[in-house]
Structure formats: structure tokens, C-alpha cells
Amino acid sequence: xxxxxxxxxxxxxxxxILSLLETAGKFEENPNRRLLEGKVxxxxxxxxxxxxxxxxxxxANRLGARVIGFSDAATSSASKGETLKDTIMxxxxxxxLIVMRHHLxxxxxxxxxxxxxxxxxxxxxxxxxxxxxxxxxxxILKTQGTLENLHIHLVGDLKYGRTVHSLxxxxxxxxxxxxxxxxxxxxxxxxxxxFCRKNNIPFTETTEFNESIIANADILYMTRVQRERxxxxxxxxxxxxxxxxxxxxxxxxxxxxxxxxxxxxINEIAxxxxxxxxxxxxxxxxxxxxVREALICDVLGIEVE
Amino acid sequence: MNTNKxxxxxxxxxxxxxxxxxxxxxxxxxxxxxxxxxxxxNVTIGYNLxxxxxxxxxxxKVADKFFTDEEVNRISLVAPNVVLNTIRDYxxxxxxxxxxxxxxxxxxxxxxxxxxxxxxPMTTIFEVASKENGTIKCHYCEKETSIxxxxxx
Lengths: 305, 153
Ligand SMILES: [Zn+2]
What we know:
- The complex is a heterodimer of chains A (305) and B (153).
- Chain A has 305 residues and is α/β, with parallel strands linked by helices.
- Chain A has 2 domains: 9-128 and 288-299, Rossmann fold, CATH 3.40.50; 131-285, Rossmann fold (3-Layer(aba) Sandwich).
- In chain A, 35% of the residues lie in helices and 14% in strands.
- Chain A is globular and about 55 Å long.
- With 153 residues, chain B is mainly β.
- In chain B, the strands form 3 sheets. Chain B has a 5-stranded antiparallel beta sheet, covered by helices on one side. In chain B, strands 6-8-9-10 form a 4-stranded antiparallel beta sheet, with no helix packed on it.
- The N and C termini of chain B lie far apart (37 Å).
């Protein structure tokens, strides 16, 4: 049998997702478990991402593993023209597990097929970033007590936002209702609307973002509206402040509402929201540690008591 | 329509395969997909032949060669309505229609420039996403693409 890599959230069944989230809960209770004593983890960041790398490397350290690798391609042999395959084969001689981030889409799938040791995808271009999706799911489960029957409002860049697409796919197991809130230029691509219809996932779409639109939300998932996504900069100037959440907009929201954001934010969440107990984005990022500990143990086949 | 003449063309083959009803503009793509330039047996290629169904069509006759389903189904990517006649002893013993394969290895180029397959020396793999809509999905970057828009490697 091929090793158990984690490449795409779409490869995980409902049962697998739930069992990984349960393991993550055990790590939240006690993150320091030296289950990986004597193991070496290769942390290969062909593209820099400090946030994700620190989270994975902290997870590895708290599990007692040692970490080797590089934090951007300039310091790796990839900058000398070495193929991805050769780098993966070299590192797999030393490591028990490879955590990799790469700007090319499909890079992690390819690596998982050629590597003798398991691979965890820490982001492959605009394609997949399963540990982010898992920490989003963990945050939803933890704050709502369930993943079932929730109203999830996705706000901002729904066209290029990898995190919202993966969340949409992962939530198909849990009977959600989605609300897509975005400017015309950045609305949800057709393939995801087709996906919703095919899976009987109800959804609404609007360009309006205001207090009444979010009144029935259980989860408000905010994303960055990035200037470089716009072909027409006039259009960007027009919409950039329309998808900005302020504390005043939360006055009529449900008590169980929680606000998520993959971070870093620019200005799409006003600072006055930070003190509202419904703001959850900083804890959400912290949950990444527990989820990544769970994912590492899972691909290495290590039981967590 | 002179069916006798055409029948003569087809039956001129003793053993082998006649690939018929190829849209004329797809003929040379089919020739490449079947790797005909590397064959050593007798091959006849008909181009711009008159066809009642297609207007003009292409036709390929390959002596002493019988294609596997896998080889045949690759043709469906460019010409889904092609018919294969297996000839034994001057007789058509089997007529096969091509079917879209579930998995396409190594013939289609991924249209996504950021896909790993366009940047590493490796083989492309596509899976059928939707038969009705004629879309295939890259096994690596997971992007879907319409069969009509594909380019071959
Ligand atoms: Zn691709």
C-alpha cells in the first residue's frame, strides 16, 4: 500500500475528518506529547510562508521531532535548477515525513507519488492547503459544538480565495447553507455553484454586505479583497471598503456567531471587532497547532491516547 | 455516393484495422495519438474523402495491427465518433466505437501554466470529470477543462 500522505481535503471522508478533529481536541488539552521522539521531519518551503511554517515546525517540536529543511527556495538546491523530484528524493533519504509548500499547483500530489515517506501539503499554489481547512473546521466545531446544519457566510474574494473553496468542499458532509457575499468581479466561480447544486447545498448570493445580511449567520468567514485581483482599479477603489466588517454591524447578530479569517488581514475587519467576543480569528490561528499535530501523527500512523 | 469505390478501399486490407469517420481536420491528431509515424507495417491514410455524414472525412488503414481498448479510447479526446473496423481475411469481423477513457495518461497538456506538470519533467494524468459536459480534470492541479479546449502533448 502507498504511504498515507495528506494532499487534498477532498481525499478525506466525513469519518476521517471527524476523527482527525477529535485527535486535535486531545492536543488542545495537552499539546506537549513526545510521540515523535527520534523522528526527523523535513520542512520544505519552496515558497516562503512564515505563518504556516512556524505552525508546522512548532507542532513537530511539541511532538518531540527534529526538523530539517529550508524556508524559501533561494536557500535550497531548487534555486540551482534541481527538479522537484530530485529534491524530494534527497530529503526522503533523511526524513520520516515531508511537510512541503510549493508555488506550483499539484506539486504536493506529485511529491506524494514519488516520495518513499509520507508528504503533508502545506499549500500548493492556489490549489490546496488542507491543514488550513482542517483548522477552519476545528474552529467551527469548537465554537458551534457541531458541524451540522450551519449557516456559513463567506465574504470578500470568493473567486481566488482558496480557503473558501476548500471549506465549501469539506462542508459538503455536514448539510450547510452557504451565503456568498462578494463584489461582482470576485464572485464564486461557476464550478463551485455547480458543486453546491449537485450536492444539494443551498446557497444565496449577494453583493450587499450589511447588518441584516449577516443576521442569521452562525459563521462569518472573512477574506482579503486584494488590489491585484482587479483588472479595473476604479472598481477596486469602489468596493474595497464595502466588504469591511465593523463592530457596529454585529449588533443584531446571533449570540453563537463567530468570525473567522485565514489571516493576515489588511483592513477587512476593523480593529474595533477584535474585542468583541464573537471575534475568533486569533484563536482560529492557534487551533492550527493542534490540528497540525493531529495531521502529523495521522500520516505517520501514530495513535494518540 | 459511390459506396462500391469506398468498399473497395476498405476491403483492400487483408488483416488489420480501418479507422473510419474521422473528421478531416482531426485526422493528423489521430495519426499522432496512435503513434502511426513509428509503425513499420503498411499504413494508408485517406484525407478529405467524401462522406455523407461529415462532408469530408479522414480514414486510416493499418495492416496487421489490432489496437487495444486503451489505445483506441485515446482517440475519443479529439474525435469522439470514430469507428474502428477490425479486418480479418478481408472481412470486417468487428466494429467498435470509441469511448472516453476514465483516465488519460500522458497525451493531454494541462492548460494551467502554474500546474506542476508544465514545470517538471513528468507525465500528465487526467480523470474524466463529467461525461455529459465533456470535461476532464487534471490529477495534479485539480483544474477542470473542456475536452474541446485541450491541447495534446
Ligand atoms: Zn494541471
